[in-house]
Write a structure and sequence with these properties.
The protein is α/β, with parallel strands linked by helices. The protein folds into 2 domains: about 220 residues, P-loop containing nucleotide triphosphate hydrolases (Rossmann fold), CATH 3.40.50.300; about 60 residues, Alpha-Beta Plaits, CATH 3.30.70. The protein contains 11 helices and 14 strands. The strands form 3 sheets. It has a 6-stranded mixed sheet, sandwiched between helices. The protein has a 4-stranded antiparallel sheet with strand order 2-1-4-5. Helix 3 packs across helix 4 and helix 5 runs parallel beside helix 6.
Length: about 325
């Protein structure tokens, strides 16, 4: 049984103005998250990521489709007990200390006495905040707040952790700290489902990735599976000595020419056109310096998704 199963999920928001059409945030979204994996939900702002997470948490009702969490309908009380959740912009009681904050959420989760005290101490150690246990949250940095927020999400030892943009707004050190914590959760056997628009974090951490654009899942799989589909493969040709304008063969192959001192770099998006481009370069009197095959990337797939759809959400909206 999957930790998360979504099929044909739709969500529309009514416009605030009479006569205006409803805004579609989700348009038949389908995905599944296996138990024990880190799944990255990748998409631009406005693609429907936060809306999906709110539906999974039972904070919002879908307009249609099916969503199950831990084998129960999304929002069911039994499924919520097994979920730890950290929203993108949480509000914390900032006059509480880190220890008081975790104890407060532990009481809400039904923990008491010595068991709660041990759990708080273990989580403070896990997120690297044991030395800040008596410091008020209003004195925490953004990275420290993210880490204490993760500790809050883990206070009741959930099997599924859902995070909305956990690395957003963090500096490189803060991102690494949160990234290491997420990887540690997988080592503990937990399932992590997190939304993000930061591509490198997905490439480093995730077992599988889903790319969502305009409320639809465009692609899903491991990073290697996604980048091997062809959208991300390029060839970089370095040459020098063009005696004329850009050869027609480069233009026909949709190649991009980038001047670099005495050389120029031709980025070729279609490796199958390589021989034609090389012949065109030689025909125009240029000298070939090097040819390098570039590994595909999620970034290339993200900006040039299948079926000609562009990775852009609904303008002006945060969904």
């Amino acid at each position: 049984m999957d930790a998360i199963f979504v099929e044909g999920l739709t969500k529309q928001f009514r416009s605030g103005w009479p006569g205006q059409p409803a805004v579609t945030a989700l348009a038949g979204l389908s995905l599944s998250v296996r138990r024990g994996e880190i799944y990255g939900f990748l998409g631009p702002n406005g693609a429907g990521k936060t809306t999906t997470l709110k539906i999974l948490m039972g904070l919002m009702k879908a307009s249609g489709g099916k969503a199950e969490v831990l084998g129960k309908p999304a929002g069911h009380v039994a499924s919520r007990r097994g979920i730890g959740f950290l929203p993108e912009s949480p509000y914390f009681y900032d006059y509480l200390t880190a220890e008081e904050f975790l104890a407060f959420y532990g009481h809400l989760a039904g923990l008491e006495g010595a068991g709660l005290k041990r759990r708080v101490e273990a989580l403070l150690d896990l997120v690297g905040l044991a030395e800040a246990r008596d410091r008020q949250l209003r004195k925490f940095s953004k990275g420290m707040l993210q880490r204490i927020g993760l500790a809050q999400a883990l206070i009741h030892d959930p099997e599924l952790v859902i995070l909305d943009e956990p690395m957003s707004g963090l500096d490189p050190i803060g991102r690494k700290q949160v990234r290491d914590l997420i990887l540690a959760l997988r080592e503990q056997g937990k399932t992590v489902f997190f939304s993000t628009h930061i591509i490198p974090d997905v490439e480093v951490m995730c077992d599988r990735v889903g790319i969502v654009v305009k409320g639809k899942l465009l692609a899903s799989g491991t990073v290697e599976e996604l980048v091997s589909r062809g959208q991300g493969r390029t060839v970089e040709i370095v040459c020098e000595g063009f005696k004329a304008a850009v050869p027609p063969a480069i233009t026909a192959a949709r190649g991009q020419v980038l001047p670099r001192g005495n050389h120029c770099v031709v980025v070729l998006p279609d490796p199958d056109r390589l021989e034609d481009v090389l012949a065109g370069i030689r025909l125009h009197g240029a000298r070939l310096v090097s040819v390098t095959s570039q590994r595909g990337s999620l970034e290339a797939l993200f900006f040039h998704p299948p079926d000609g759809q562009q990775a852009g959400g609904h303008p002006g909206e945060r969904v």
